[in-house]
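Suppose a classmate hands you a notebook page containing two proteins, each written out with its sequence and a corresponding row of structure tokens. How would you begin to make sense of it? This section walks through that situation. The first entry is reproduced here exactly as it would appear on such a page.
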Amino acid sequence: MTHPRWHPHSLVVVAFVMVAVGCGAAPARSPAAGPGAAGSSAAPASADDYRAAVIEGARAEGAVNATISSTWTPDGLRELEDAVDRQYGVRIKINYTPVGSYPQRVASLLDELGANVTPSFDLYQTSDASSLTLLQQEALETVSWGALLPDGTPPSVVQLDGALLVVSTGHIGLMFDPTVYSEAEVPHSIQELANPKFRGKLMLHNYAQSYLAYTYKLGRESTLAALRAAVRNGAVADIYANGFTRYAAKEYPLVTISSSYYLRAASTNLPAGFVPLDFSFETEHHLSVPKRAAHPNAAKLLAAVLAGPEGQRIAAKHIDNANRHYEDSTEFQLEQQARAAGLTTFRWTESPEAMRLLLSPEGVEVQREINNILQGG
């Protein structure tokens, strides 16, 4: 079955990296998992039965251990608990842990599953390669999200037959200070980052995987040469959060960054503009429920609310996230602006060749070389 955002050619990628994406029956759970738990041997007969079983299972569980976006606040989490209660009539406590590094969380989960122990978390947030790794390792439950998602949720947020649920999206590009540079003056290509007029004015993000997309789109040597030239031109590299902090402090008027930080700048009235570099580079952040989770039903309800309209409103209020699958979102607007400018769109999940590069020894080697360049090597 092909879901709306996973076109037929995308499924070639999945076939390349895994045999059966956890779509078969998962190992049976202990009775403590509650009725309707994902992986139970007898599936409910209808969507209504499934929904009722999950709700009752969540009621028995009473809590969910969630490692999700690192910027959630206590007030935002309380609003999410209230939203779950309003939507399903169940009060669950969210035991929240900032997700931090996606690859590190994925590695820890796989270690736990490999050791046949209960995962530390019931709900995980990942994106792109990290999500694919979990699918490749058959670490995730499949969920009948259609029976759980609130009214008004775009069906396209469901991916891979229910293994993944899109909670937010991002665009990777250049944020600039419009009080320093006009949009016409700023770089619109990574080849322009070495322009002497930007010496000492540019901060790069240090995520090699993202630059790997440029090697796929623009060529390996061309991309590596552009990064070397930018570093020689005085560009420094760091994580998104530090780039945003130094941008806000007026140290760097140009930063390569995710659009979520551009939305944060706008919400705090910090002057900011955003442009793609070379192409529209989109990422998707997913929620998933691992196999053998301690509280799988509560995890499903929290995930459904997060991906639904109320959860999106709460996220926009507290953590400045948005989701291009919603046509009233800033992320959707950025996508449309890029299309209007004639830019092509790149998503890892829609290019079999790019995904093969990402998962290949060559891809690992190129990322190592990129890291060396960004560290001044």
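The notebook's second entry, a different protein, reads as follows.
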Amino acid sequence: MARVNDAGPFAFVLDTGSSGTTLDDRRIKQLALEPDGPSEEGQGMGGAIDVRLFRLRTFAAGPLALHDLVVPGIPAPSLASHDIAGLAGVDIFGAHLATWRWDRACVFLTASGSQPVGQGWRPVRSRWLKPWKILLPVRIGKASGWGLLDTGAQKSILSPGFARAAGLGGSIAGADTITGVEGRETRFIVHDLRNATFGAWQYRNVKIGVAALPLFDRLGGMDEPLAVIGMDWIADRPFGIDYGSQSVWQKVRAPGR
């Protein structure tokens, strides 16, 4: 929940895969915002989109307060449970350690360089392309690659190259669709996986999609072993991202859980 220009509070989706905060058209009109310069090109999971930019005086969420920031006007995700005003991107975290605790429905902010509070945390090897492009190791069968940690994605998707390397051609479980912020609907094939790992997390009997998302070209290429790991895999698994030291922590479940 955040207040924008002292109005609200409004509900935003916290999105580790978004470079910046966005605002939908209804809230732009409600706040009587004027465009700040010409339109620019933004990038969603499914491709490019032209966006108008708007300047906010303040954006305040919990202990965080950003001043004089420019945000794109983009349609907000549709959720049955909340009236969503936009995405809260990683720009709001600054250089903090942001620890995601699903059991407390909260993101805890502490100083960079510290460790998440509690037991069971492990530092995880990562490729830090950008603060909103953090890749962790993914292993499916005998194939290894890299996955984008993306709380803004509802489904986890493999690149065609990763699917071929993992030999998923004959394990089709169905089909589904996703829609990115650019509004394009992308159909993907769903596969059943007996086991997989994402960083320090292990999975048994999970599903994964395969699609040629334009996002993969921005991460390294369609033929590379890449993945977007979304909420269907992240679910209630706690993790921490230290935006100051560029490090990632994952909390590992006790054996048998």
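A careful reader of the second entry would note: Residues 114-251 form a domain with the Cathepsin D, subunit A; domain 1 fold (CATH 2.40.70.10).
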